[in-house]
């Protein structure tokens, strides 16, 4: 037995590979040919692609033990932008010349046992070029195990430390070793990537099981051969594929493909001359992010003089929005944002000094400034507020958006913390509230990139909450709780519990609105620590001593944490018990469970199933309760083909005493295969009104809805009995789960408003200014600009260049107004706003409102030196010009509006979508090209002629990949064996005539897409799409002088009521007026016993002429 074991050990020892780790000659220079190609587009032929190719020679020479020099010789860069595979690469001489100086500088790297260590590069070499070095050295990274042919490991590469599988094949007769390795970039221990713009989004981890937006993998093939000095790498080929799809994967995807070839040419005697300058350690193989983080992928600019360029962009934007919005205005606004990012503090000061007193330029600059998000921009905003150079409204808006857009780094965070403590910010209540709420958002984004949130980050909010509680300032307590909710950090739970009933003895004495705010503050924290928040909320929900409104809010928040079946059934059990004594709570819980049980969103499938089971515990008769009881209404949809869905929810919480809604919450949520977001949430609370009505002891339960509303209005008009401290109505608005503003309306505000409206306008500056503008007429234009979305996901390619998936959206709202007002009697010197209610007003106006939304999605290479990829542009342009005359007689309660008939064609809505392949390089910006991904037939001929006239030589066309792979362009022919696709073109036109108004409403659609390649949603979206909704004047039998709408209420309303009479053969016969009047009174609900009537009359007539 011992002999057998010994024999096996000897056999295994003999089978182990020895000295097979790749080495380089210690006395000679190893010379390789290197080629790297990146192409972006779609896998099918006949569609346009864009990319870049790098050719060069690579020389490697020994420097010291386990240390080598690498030098690039004869670099050449080519661009690709054309129809694949017909069109060739074209040489980019200027870009090659611009990069050659840096690329040809030697670099040093550590190399031992097939592993690349630290890399040393000259300090004046850009990070982009250093990453290209990494792409080359990444091919030399190979881990060989002596005793295994197939093995897995986590290996370091350009893309991070990711799962890698090796397969080794050894040819002993040829003394060659073939190694195949594959890397899964979706399975990384330490992945190199950057995501910008999704700090506030909720990532859906379960959705990855259904669909992946981005998938990536790479394969490498090594050919090693034994030489006298050891094993030499003869050839390395690498191929990386990144697949991107916004829809279900089965519908196809866009791809980014990278190919590399490193082929041994030979060796030459001598050594590379060591550089005279000190080489700087630039880290290991992992890709290093640089200035591409600040470079938008949708345009490439030289920013040597950002101030002058920003002035030009400002002038362009203001001119573009004088009378209407030009098509390129949103793109120009994004360009302005990019230029502000490139500007330093002094540039910003100069821009402000130049345009601060010019209204339109000032407004445009203030729109772009908070979107830039740089340290200098945030610092400059802080200075403007401190120097009181902004109005209160401008400061509040600027703070809100600046902190949301600023990069969540240490410096920006410190500026934000200083801004909150600034005395000029605290001086104005509106600005202070905006700053505190925005700071909570900044804390959320800052702490999101840390393992735990530091105490100093939350300290200002904790101190505000503690100080407000000690002083009994309820408004400041609410502000602190809302900001802590924005921050959403588990470290704040104990602070919030001090304001929750059942967790603090003093909390029971707090107003219900404060307790509710404390519960709502836990909603964002639940995203970080759902189990802890569920325990707190369940305890509140089960406590009968807690006010019903607070328990209902706890129920709402509980289901947002997506509890498991055990928790859901516990909630149902509590609701079943409460159904005998607290129908408001039982109804709210039942309706919420029922709504969730019907959800079709895959993200909510476990919760929907749990609610379906839990509903069996509850009494089904709860479903029959009317709207006097609290309800939850939910509508959602999800399309698996699009991997997207949406949900709209309304929560109505009624008072048990008055049956009056004390809280209404409405929100809209979107779902995608990557994230889910609460796009907007609006809440209105009527706690003060409910308290006041409860004290009036009105039996609302016995009244019909109409009488209930009448009683409420009558009670509120006697505002002297309203509570002075409790807000009557309060409301808030959230965007993407973050509260950006809230306001309260109390008795004092009502009294001051009524007093200001009834006193002479001269005593109140704001009232006087508004009335003067109104009475003197308004002439001018208004424009606002936003960058509504910026999402970027950047990962490195194996070549060492950054691959980016991005989504940008900018919007411009514009309105040109020309109006004048006539008032009878003519206003006197002591005229008050209330007197308008007793006057006759005539308003002549012409308005031209419009909105333009531009969305850009890109996939490709985005570096400070060149860009290449696929770009989708979508534009929605809506404009509705109107010219009218309005007559308003408040005394007789009569309103009439007249407008002339349409005289010219107007495009009401225009939608256009296009998909391009684009290339740009910083050395030759004029050579930037954009080609339709789905080319038109005539464009294919033009492209062919363009490339034929470039004088392409055989040397230019030669490629290391053309003979051995599919990466190189092949000869494109129309022979029978080669199938050519025609683009899928469809069009649709339809018109509808509205003879009463004298207009035609026409729809025109045209699409030119890639569905002929693959008939799926994704390929149907790729191409060109146009949609127009047009209003045209229509010919009518009789001339239309004007269109008129009149509304009369009050005593004279009945005199305006007339019947719709079809006068045919009975023309001239009297109509039964009594019957018509009775019928109309019944429809309008007019009470014969009441003298005051409120009726709306609609007059239409139609008469045929006798022939």
TrEMBL record:
Biological processes per GO annotation: cellular response to estrogen stimulus; response to estradiol
Origin superkingdom: Eukaryota
PROSITE patterns: VITELLOGENIN
Signal sequence segment: 1-20
Residue ranges annotated for the Vitellogenin domain, each copy included: 24-664
Disulphide-bridged cysteine pairs: 162-188, 204-207
An example Gene Ontology molecular-function term: lipid transporter activity
Record keyword S-adenosyl-L-methionine present: no
Segments traversing the membrane: none
Keyword Nucleotidyltransferase (UniProt): no
Family matches, as InterPro entries: Lipid_transp_b-sht_shell, Lipovitellin_superhlx_dom, Vitellinogen_b-sht_N, Vitellinogen_open_b-sht, Vitellinogen_open_b-sht_sub1, Vitellogenin/Apolipophorin, Vitellogenin_N
Alphabetized UniProt keyword annotations: Disulfide bond, Glycoprotein, Phosphoprotein, Signal, Storage protein
Protein name (Swiss-Prot/TrEMBL): LOC100037071 protein
Organism: Xenopus laevis (African clawed frog)
């Amino acid at each position: 037995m011992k002999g057998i074991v010994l024999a096996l050990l000897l056999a295994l020892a003999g089978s182990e590979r020895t000295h097979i780790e790749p080495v380089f000659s210690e006395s000679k220079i190893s010379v390789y040919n290197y080629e790297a190609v990146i192409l972006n587009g779609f896998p099918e032929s006949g569609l346009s692609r864009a990319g870049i190719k790098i050719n060069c020679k690579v020389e490697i020479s020994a420097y010291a033990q386990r240390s080598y020099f690498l030098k690039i010789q004869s670099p050449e860069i080519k661009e690709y932008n054309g129809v694949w595979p017909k069109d060739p690469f074209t040489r980019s001489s200027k870009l090659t010349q611009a990069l050659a100086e840096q690329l040809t500088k030697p670099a040093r790297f550590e190399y031992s046992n097939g592993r690349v260590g630290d890399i040393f590069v000259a300090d004046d070499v850009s990070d982009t070029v250093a990453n290209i070095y990494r792409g080359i050295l990444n091919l030399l990274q190979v881990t060989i195990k002596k005793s295994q042919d197939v093995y897995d490991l986590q290996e370091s590469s350009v893309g991070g430390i990711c799962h890698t599988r090796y397969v080794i094949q050894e040819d002993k007769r040829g003394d060659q070793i073939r190694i195949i390795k594959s890397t899964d970039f979706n399975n990384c221990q330490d992945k190199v990537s950057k995501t910008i713009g999704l700090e506030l989004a909720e990532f859906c981890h379960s959705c990855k099981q259904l669909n992946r937006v981005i998938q990536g993998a790479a394969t490498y093939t090594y050919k090693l051969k034994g030489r006298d000095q050891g094993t030499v790498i003869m050839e390395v080929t690498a191929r990386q594929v990144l697949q991107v799809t916004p829809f279900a994967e089965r519908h196809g995807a866009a791809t980014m493909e990278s190919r590399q070839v490193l082929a041994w040419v030979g060796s030459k005697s001598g050594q590379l001359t060591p550089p005279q300058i000190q080489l700087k350690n630039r880290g290991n193989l992992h890709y290093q992010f640089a200035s591409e983080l600040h470079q938008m992928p949708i345009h490439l600019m030289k920013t040597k003089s950002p101030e002058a360029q920003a002035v030009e962009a400002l002038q362009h934007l203001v001119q573009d929005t004088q009378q209407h919005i030009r098509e390129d205005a949103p793109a120009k606004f994004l360009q302005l944002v990019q230029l502000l990012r490139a500007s330093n503090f002094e540039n910003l000061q100069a821009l402000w000094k130049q345009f601060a007193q010019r209204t339109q330029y000032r407004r445009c600059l203030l729109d772009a400034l908070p979107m830039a998000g740089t340290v200098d921009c945030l610092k400059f905003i802080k200075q403007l507020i401190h120097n009181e150079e902004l109005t209160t409204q401008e400061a509040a808006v600027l703070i809100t958006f600046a902190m949301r857009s600023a990069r969540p780094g240490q410096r920006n965070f410190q500026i934000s913390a200083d801004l909150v403590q600034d005395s000029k910010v605290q001086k104005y209540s509106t600005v202070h509230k905006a700053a505190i709420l925005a700071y909570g958002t900044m804390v959320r984004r800052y702490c999101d990139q840390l393992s735990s949130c530091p105490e100093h980050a939350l300290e200002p909010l904790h101190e505000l909450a503690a100080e407000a509680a000690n002083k009994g300032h309820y408004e400041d307590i609410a502000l602190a709780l809302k900001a802590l909710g924005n921050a959403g950090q588990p470290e704040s739970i104990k602070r919030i519990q001090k304001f929750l009933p059942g967790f603090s003895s003093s909390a029971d004495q707090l107003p219900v609105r404060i307790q509710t705010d404390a519960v709502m503050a836990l909603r964002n924290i639940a995203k970080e620590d759902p189990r802890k928040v569920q325990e707190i909320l369940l305890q509140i929900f089960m406590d009968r001593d807690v006010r019903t409104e607070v328990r209902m809010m706890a129920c709402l928040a509980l289901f947002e944490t997506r509890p498991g079946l055990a928790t859901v059934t516990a909630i149902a059990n509590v609701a079943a018990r409460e159904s005998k004594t607290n129908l408001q709570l039982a109804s709210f819980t039942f309706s919420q469970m029922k709504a969730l049980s019907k959800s079709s969103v895959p993200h909510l499938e476990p919760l929907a199933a749990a609610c379906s089971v839990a509903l069996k515990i509850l009494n089904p008769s709860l479903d029959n309760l009317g709207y006097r009881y609290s309800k939850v209404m939910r509508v959602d949809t999800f399309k698996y083909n699009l991997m997207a869905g949406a949900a709209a929810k309304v929560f109505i919480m009624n008072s048990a005493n008055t049956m009056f809604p004390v809280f209404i919450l409405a929100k809209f949520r979107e779902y995608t295969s990557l994230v889910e977001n609460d796009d907007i949430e609006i809440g209105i609370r009527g706690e003060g009104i409910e308290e006041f009505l409860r004290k009036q002891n009105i039996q609302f339960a016995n009244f019909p809805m109409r009488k209930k509303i009448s009683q409420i209005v009558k009670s509120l008009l006697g505002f002297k009995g309203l509570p002075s401290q409790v807000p009557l109505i309060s409301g808030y608005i959230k965007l993407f789960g973050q509260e950006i503003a809230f306001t309260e309306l109390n008795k004092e505000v009502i009294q001051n408003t009524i007093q200001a409206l009834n006193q002479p306008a001269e005593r109140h500056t704001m009232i006087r200014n508004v009335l003067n503008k109104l009475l003197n007429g308004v002439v001018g234009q208004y424009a606002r600009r936003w960058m509504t979305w910026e999402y970027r996901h950047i990962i490195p390619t194996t070549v060492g260049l950054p691959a980016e998936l991005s989504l940008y959206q900018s919007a411009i709202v514009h309105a040109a107004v020309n109006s004048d007002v006539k008032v009878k009697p003519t206003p006197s010197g002591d005229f008050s706003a209330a007197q308008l209610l007793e006057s006759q007003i005539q308003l002549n106006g012409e308005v031209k409102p419009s909105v333009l939304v531009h969305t850009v999605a890109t996939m490709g290479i985005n570096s400070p030196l060149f860009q290449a990829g696929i770009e989708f542009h979508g534009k929605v342009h809506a404009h509705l010009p109107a010219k009218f005359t309005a007559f308003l007689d408040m005394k007789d309660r009569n309103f009439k509006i007249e407008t002339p008939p349409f005289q010219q064609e107007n495009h009401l809505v225009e939608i256009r979508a296009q998909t391009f392949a684009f290339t740009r390089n910083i050395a030759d910006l004029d050579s930037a090209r954009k080609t339709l991904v789905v080319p038109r037939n005539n464009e294919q001929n033009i492209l062919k002629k363009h490339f034929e006239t470039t004088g392409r030589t055989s040397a230019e066309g030669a490629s290391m990949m053309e003979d051995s792979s599919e990466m190189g362009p092949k000869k494109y022919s129309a022979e029978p064996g080669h199938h050519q696709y025609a683009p899928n073109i469809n069009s649709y036109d339809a018109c509808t005539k509205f003879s009463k108004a004298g207009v035609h409403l026409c729809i025109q659609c045209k699409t030119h897409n890639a569905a002929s390649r693959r008939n799926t949603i994704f390929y149907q979206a790729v191409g060109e799409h146009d949609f127009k909704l047009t209003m045209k004047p229509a010919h009518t039998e009789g001339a239309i002088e004007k269109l008129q709408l009149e509304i009369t209420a009050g005593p004279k309303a009945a005199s305006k009521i007339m019947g719709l009479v079809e006068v045919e053969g009975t023309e001239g016969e009297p109509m039964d007026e009594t019957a018509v009047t009775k019928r109309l009174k019944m429809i309008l609900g007019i009470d014969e016993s009441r003298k005051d009537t409120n009726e709306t009359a609609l007059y239409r007539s139609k008469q045929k002429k006798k022939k």
